[in-house]
From TrEMBL:
Enzyme Commission designation: 1.11.1.26
Keyword hit for Oxidoreductase: yes
Entry's Gene Ontology cellular component terms: cytosol
Name of protein: Alkyl hydroperoxide reductase C
Domain spans labelled Thioredoxin: 3-158
Keywords: Antioxidant, Cytoplasm, Disulfide bond, Oxidoreductase, Peroxidase, Redox-active center
Pfam families the UniProt entry points to: 1-cysPrx_C (PF10417), AhpC-TSA (PF00578)
Taxonomic source organism: Psychrobacter aquaticus CMS 56
């Protein structure tokens, strides 16, 4: 499998449910700011609403960092609205819920479960150039943490803004970074 890191997001145009309205979102709309794509198997399920609610609970902080969140499943935008209207957890979601009934976006990010017509539990952090900087895929029964994704956003933004520096494992904002050089080889 070829790496998706530093690859441009696939071109797409899709309908989404956003803040009580239907809206068309394109890959071009995504470029110019940071974005998280949160793929999940299906609306009206079990782990999925806990993940979308967790992301909703961190959405204001992400927006403050210039990050837009896009949840994506192979359900339609109509189904997203029905789920939003009927679930207390999903009712908290203010970020775009993209419908991908053809699977074009899901396949473009290489997270389609072909035999089921559903998305894997995939998370992608995209930089303002439209390039994927973080890609994670979880098994269906393993929920994701928005808090950990928030940490990765901060690390990716730091690395982008501080040429030549890298963030070590479990780096938190304000923590020590590294400047790779010959002097560090074998000293860490």
């Amino acid at each position: 499998m070829a790496s998706i890191i530093n690859q441009e997001i696939p071109e797409f145009s899709a309908d989404a449910y956003v803040n009580g309205e239907f809206k068309t979102i394109t890959s071009e709309d995504v470029k110019g700011s940071w974005a998280i794509f949160l793929f999940y198997p299906a609306d009206f399920t079990f782990v999925c609403p806990t993940e979308l609610e967790d992301m909703a609970n961190h959405y204001d902080e992400l927006k403050g960092l210039g990050v837009e969140v896009y949840s994506v499943s192979t359900d339609t935008h109509f189904t997203h609205k029905a789920w939003h209207d009927s679930s207390d957890a999903i009712g908290k979601v203010n970020y775009p819920m993209i419908g991908d009934p053809t699977g074009k976006i899901t396949r473009g990010f290489n997270v389609m479960i072909e035999e089921a017509g559903l998305a894997e539990r995939g998370t992608f952090l995209v930089d303002p150039d439209g390039l994927i900087q973080v890609a994670e895929i979880h098994a269906g029964g393993i929920g994701r943490s928005a808090k950990d994704m928030l940490r990765k956003v901060k690390a990716a933004q730091y690395v982008r803004e501080n040429d030549g520096e890298v963030c070590p494992a479990a780096w938190e904002q304000g923590g020590d970074t590294l400047k790779p050089s010959l002097d560090l080889v074998g000293k860490i």
